[in-house]
Amino acid sequence: xxxxxxxxxxxxxxxxxxxxxxxxxxxxxxxxxxxxxxxxxxxxxxxxxxxxxxxxxxxxxxxxxxxxxxxxxxxxxxxxxxxxxxxxxxxxxxxxxxxxxxxxxxxxxxxxxxxxxxxxxxxxxxxxxxxxxxxxxxxxxxxxxxxxxxxxxxxxxxxxxxxxxxxxxxxxxxxxxxxxxxxxxxxxxxxxxxxxxxxxxxxxxxxxxxxxxxxxxxxxxxxxxxxxxxxxxxx
Length: 235
Fold this sequence. Notes:
The protein is an alpha/beta fold. The chain has two domains: 3-74, no CATH class; 79-225, Rossmann fold (3-Layer(aba) Sandwich), CATH 3.40.50.720. It contains eight helices and eleven strands. A six-stranded parallel beta sheet has the order 8-7-6-9-10-11, with helices on both faces. Strands 3-2-1-5-4 form a five-stranded antiparallel beta sheet, sandwiched between helices. α3 packs across α8 (210-225).
């Protein structure tokens, strides 16, 4: 691997950017695709670049059909930031972990955010806006607020909506969510920004129990991650 390609790859990993290392299996030439930047001695046409970007979006490494190219996708890990160390979080965290997320639970209430309630989970007792700012959600990060408390959920949402988080969900009834949107509008957010919030969080599957609600949230985050269309609902 050429030094410029290696340096670019290491820099992208350190900055948690999604990139792809492309190798021509016939001659060994390589290129690193990082957004619109291409580093290396391998020339890539626009059609091939589009296919490589799709491979990055799909998190899929492998040979590129009908070419001599092999694409090695280097995506940052999936992350989920859960605001609220509540009982639903206790069901959501293990499900999200099984789905491949590195989960952080944020709750400044020390009595809730404990190792006993969330063993082997990264916990933050910082205020949610401070925690989200430090965690820097990217396009491989989902943010879910669960507290129903505007003092905790709203600051988290205000920060999350300034990031590239691919999924932002907030628990609560339709009435609760309508009031939430009114508060966020009062903070200066417009309808385009607010439309990024999935509220109530989770797919509409009739979930009632904490475990069922957790399933619906993980499913909706998966749907958003892969850009799948929302399922049709009955009239």
